[in-house]
Amino acid sequence: MNRDKMFRLCAAAAVAAALGVSYPAAAAPQVMRLAENQPETNPVTVAMRQFAKLVEQKTNGEIKVDVYASAVLGQEPETIEQAQLGAIEFARVNSVVVANVVKEVGVFTLPYVFRDIDHKFKVLDGEIGRQVDAALEKQGLVNLGYMEAGSRSFYTIKGKQIKSLADMAGKKIRVQPAPIAIQMIKLLGATPTPMNYGEVYSALESGVIDGAENDYVSYVTSAHFEVAPFYTEDNHLSPPAMLLMNKDKLAALSPKHQAAIKEAGKEAAVFERDLMVKGNEEAKKKAIAAGVVITTLDNTPFREAVKEIYTKFPEYTDVLKRIGETR
């Protein structure tokens, strides 16, 4: 700013003060809350920080998103309910838990439903994904973006290593509290033990459960590798993560702000997908460096064992056919 302009502004301010004129203060930003159950180092949390940054930029600072990581606002079942009720605006959650609320989401959580990551996002970004989004809106939730949550495999405590399907027999395996995940574990011959994510470390450490299942990123960032140092790559599930927003909270915003939040959600989702793929590669290296024993096996027997699950959920028959035909 040049000297003349500065002088004019100061003079104007002095005159205004002398006349008792006051200028309205800039409006405070509208603050929204986002629940995230993963720690700060997890790629999904990093992506949610990016989402918050994008929202602030795209709304010129008029909306600010506070991200509460590490399950500060509760575990996923609680935060989905909070988002539905409007107690919070956003919840970043895994689709396995969302399926308890919106059954149409469940098809994405079936074992071995996607051929690979490219196939997954052709389905999610296409007509099938949009139809599931419409079902979510009927339950008061808007999906702002499908994200990569890695491929889930089993990991176990000492003395409970899984080297084949036969080793699943009788093992107590933590699963997310969802019917499909529970049924899958039963078909594999193990005992499903539903519990919230925050309880898993202590349950593994104390031997309450023999193992759990997740992708490499969550396995490492949660420090589960410290108490369950045997990881078996069977890649049984590849459910997407989702960023959900309360429908009424979104509708109450100006069209400009609605568009900004939707754009930020899409951009953050794309950002997260690449970050998660790289993150899983790095997490696997860290696990190996920490002494984790990794077993890579032919998962064909696992696939065969869970085929019955598709008949137990006949409501997905048609959409499964369409997913299989997606190229």
Give me some keywords for this one:
327 residues, alpha/beta, D-Maltodextrin-Binding Protein, domain 2, 2 domains, globular
What would your notes on this structure say?
This protein has helices at 3-18, 43-58, 76-85, 95-98, 117-124, 127-138, 179-187, 200-206, 216-221, 247-251, 255-289, 300-306, 309-312, 317-325, and strands at residues 30-36, 63-68, 90-94, 141-147, 152-156, 172-175, 191-194, 211-214, 230-237, 241-246, 293-296. Strands 2-1-3-10-4 form a five-stranded mixed beta sheet, sandwiched between helices. Strands 8-5-9-11 form a four-stranded mixed beta sheet. A two-stranded parallel sheet has the order 6-7. The protein contains 14 helices and eleven strands. Strand 1, helix 2 (43-58) and strand 2 form a beta-alpha-beta unit. The model is unreliable at 5-19 (pLDDT under 50). It folds into two domains: 30-150 and 239-284, D-Maltodextrin-Binding Protein, domain 2 (3-Layer(aba) Sandwich); 152-238 and 285-325, D-Maltodextrin-Binding Protein, domain 2. Helix 2 (43-58) runs antiparallel to helix 11 (255-289). By secondary structure, it is α/β, with parallel strands linked by helices.
